[in-house]
Amino acid sequence: MLQVLRVAGIPVRVDLSWLVVFGLISWSLAAGYFPRVLPEASAGMAWMHGVVAALLLFVSVFLHELSHALVAIEQGVPVSGIRLHVFGGVSEMEAEPPTPRAELLIAAVGPLTSFVIAALCYGLGQALGGPPWVAALTGYLAAVNFIVALFNLVPGFPLDGGRLLHALLWWGSGRQEWATLWASRAGSVFALSMIALGIVRALGGEMVGGLWFVFIGFFLHQAARASRELIGIRARLEPLRVAEVMTPVDADAVDAPVGSPADAVEPDASAWQAFLKLGRVSAGRVPVVDGGRLVGIVGRRELREALTERPDADVERRAA
User: Which whole-number Å values give the CA distances from 278 to 6, 116, 146, 265, 308, in the listed order?
Assistant: First the structure.
C-alpha cells in the first residue's frame, strides 16, 4: 500500500493491485478503443491516449470516493483514508453512519458525483470540438463515468445502491440489523446473477469479458456475505465492554503514561468498536488506554474468545 497524497486531511493510498488494473486498462484502450475511433493515430499516440485516459479514469474514481469521504465527515463519521484498488476504490470509514439520513446522503453523493463528471466530460467534448482525440477522450470518460454511476446504483451491498436500499429500509422499519440482512441478500442475488452471466458469456466465446464478470460477481458475493456475518458479530460484541475482553497489563510494569494514540480504545468502549478499530490496523491488536495510561491489550484473539463464548445461532433469525 502506497500513500500518494493527502486531501482535506484524508490520506489517499494506492493498492499494488491498482497498478495491474491501470496497465490492463491502458493496454485495452491503446490496442482497442483508440485505434478504432482514431484510425489515423500511430501506435505511440494510441498508447499515450490510453495512459492519459486510464489516469483520468482513476481520478474520476478518486473524486467519487472523495465525495463519499467528505459527506461522511460532515455527517460525523470519521474517515481514516481513501484506498484505490483493483475494483476501483473505497472510503475507509471508522464507524457506521449514525442515522438512516446520514447513510442516505453518504451513499447518494458517490453516484451523483460520477453522473456530474460524465455530464461535464460530455459537455466539454461538445464545447471544445477541435482535434478528434479530444472527442474520443472526453467521450470515453463520459461513457465510463455514466456506467460507473449506474452500476453503483444497483440495490445490493456493498454497492452504493445497496447502501441506499439499506438506508431506506432502516428509515422505514427502524431496524438496522433487518435492513442490513435484506440489503446484503439483494447484493448476493445480484452477485450470483453476474457470475451466471459471466459463465454464459465465457461459454459463448467472450472469455475475457465473461471471466471478468465472474471475478467481480465473486467479489461482490463475498462482500455481501461478510455484511450478513457482521450482523451476528455486532450483536455479540456491542453489549460487551472492552474491559471485559481485554488482556490486562500489569500496572507495576507500566509506571508512565503512554498517551492516547489514534489506534487506542478506552476500557468503557464497546468491544464492537475495538473490532472496527482492529480492521484498520495491521498489528492485530490495539492498546487499551484509560486516562493516558496503558491498562490492557485487545486483539483478534481476545475478540475470537468473546465470540466463541456468545453463540449467535438466533441472530439472523432475530434480524429477519
Answer: 23, 36, 36, 10, 18
Residue 186 lies in a domain: yes
Q: Are 91 and 136 in contact (CB under 8 A)?
A: no
Element (H, E) at 17: helix 16-28
By residue range, what is the domain housing residue 290?
A: 242-312
Per annotation, catalytic residue among 65, 92, 103, 177: 65
Average pLDDT, the chain: 83
Angle at which helices 271-278 and 300-309 cross, to 10°: 140
**What is the identity of the amino acid at 68?**
H
238 catalytically annotated: no
Provide the residue count of the chain: 320
Separation of alpha carbons 166 and 176, rounded Å: 8
Same domain, 188 and 93: no
Q: For residue 258, is pLDDT > 60?
A: no
Query: Cα 276–279–280 angle (5° rounding)?
Result: 100
Mean pLDDT computed over 293-308: 83
CA distances from 40 to 28, 36, 131, 227 (A): 18, 9, 12, 50
Q: How far is CA 283 from the centre of its chain?
A: 21
Place of cell 489506534: 263
Work out the number of other CB atoms within 10 angstroms of the CB of residue 134: 13
Give the count of domains, the chain.
Answer: 3
